[in-house]
Amino acid sequence: MTKISLETSAPYYVQFYHMIKEMIFEGKYQPGERVNETHLAKEYKVSKSPIREAIRILEKEGLLVVDRAKVVVYQPTLKDVRDIYYCRMALESFAVKLTTKIATDMELKEIKNTLKETETAIQLQKEPNEIILLNEKFHQLILTYSQNIRLQKQVNDLKSLINYFRTLNFKGELRGKEILKQHQKIFCFMEQRDAETASSEMVRHLEMDVNHLINILQEEKID
Asked: CATH number for the domain including 34?
């Protein structure tokens, strides 16, 4: 395990929350692997309390599972993947429809600039995490500019698992370019204020995402 120095400026449980989450997303903790709070407490010379609080938050977000008094990393099933993506299709297709109708020209320009940043990052062969964050920003801006707080909350409740799947889904040599092309197509109809077609393209984009992710998980023999 990579040794990380704890800071005094932020509560320890917050630091452990971000550290464990990052290790899950980066694959340093594998699906089904145990997260041992006793070992972490000894390694960082702290009590178990902040680690337990971090684990509690990550369990609530779905990234950790308590299994017979052991804490293990969430291991996705194909049904989980399908269920979560079906939720995204319903929620985000409606979000893009709303945003296309009510977003200001400046707000649409910000979404467009995010796509330009993504294209530049791909051309410059930036780290995958940087491109993934820009892809996340595209979806988040659409949610934000929908101005529907209830809708945003529904998606945010799934946010950690969505980002976990987003990281897995990025596997593939040309994956960044494929996702960007789909995002550009969605935005093309947003810019034309064609809400219905933008919504349909979002569903199509997420359908392609889930199919790609299922292929990856099947190759890794996840049921």
From this structure: 1.10.10.10
